[in-house]
Amino acid sequence: MKHLLSISDLTRDELFEILKLAEKLKEERYRGIVTDYLKNKSLAMIFELPSTRTRVSFEVAMSDLGGHALYLGWNELQLGRGEPIKDTARVLSRYVHAIMLRVRDHSTIEEFARYSSIPVINGLSNLEHPCQVIADLLTIYEYRGDFRDVTLAWVGDGNNVCNSLILASALTGMRMIVSTPENYEPDSGIMQKARELGGEIIFERDPVKAVGEADVIYTDVWTSMGQEGEKEERLTAFKGYQISDELLSRSKDDVVVMHCLPAHRGEEITDEVIEGKHSIVFDQAENRLHAQKAILLKLIGKENEVY
Ligand code: CP
Ligand code: NVA
What we know:
- This protein is an alpha/beta fold and 307 residues long.
- The chain contains 12 helices and 9 strands.
- It starts with 11 loop residues before the first helix and ends in a 7-residue tail after the last helix.
């Protein structure tokens, strides 16, 4: 039994198995093949924060695979009235086959996982967003064919998505340049873990220099969920880190631009760039669906049925 709280909960082999599986499931969907690999299986999805992509892609993934997903808003559960996490985890473990949670604090999902006897999946916490980066890796692989010769420049906030990408780059051998303003660097524990995994992570304060060598440029919002009170100071701190046509003109001609979405157009990225020829953000969003299926099959232990 395996949880997916951090992308580094997966070994390199497991990560590549999930990516291969996602490719296969994508192809099956395109060919209109009806599958029931998760027939009679249920997924509980607990959301403490809003979601479009994570919610819909997990729900459709379960339905495409012949299973069932339950959307559970935190405050509609007894959790919202103070029922302990440890009780909720043990009760849900008796009903469903996997639980996905989106939480404010990473410690909440860690506690949940400690008491759950079924797989727990992190659908975003303040520390990591592993399901997002699995879809991102699938997208990078589709556009670049490999990870070894790829340089990804992260420009903006060293947030949850950045943290998971750092670990993912260490697992896949992708080179990563991280460009953030001072005091907005990624989590130090994550950096330590990435180094232990042999990751090549380079810090470059200047976004122009960072994108100069990039094959992939990735950004995300400057103010993540739960940080709304810091919005004004963040707008000031991140000046100069916007992905604009001007910044792109300093990068390679065939560079691709990624964003996990939702985007704040006019802040971390311009409207022109999202709508422009370098942007692959909607392929990336689509891949959430194929990746979730592979994650579910792997964690529920049904991946062998696909082959
Ligand atoms: N990228 C992502 O996780 O989007 P949602 O917040 O819409 O789920
Ligand atoms: N960093 C963003 C990602 C949203 C999908 C947030 O945590 O709000």
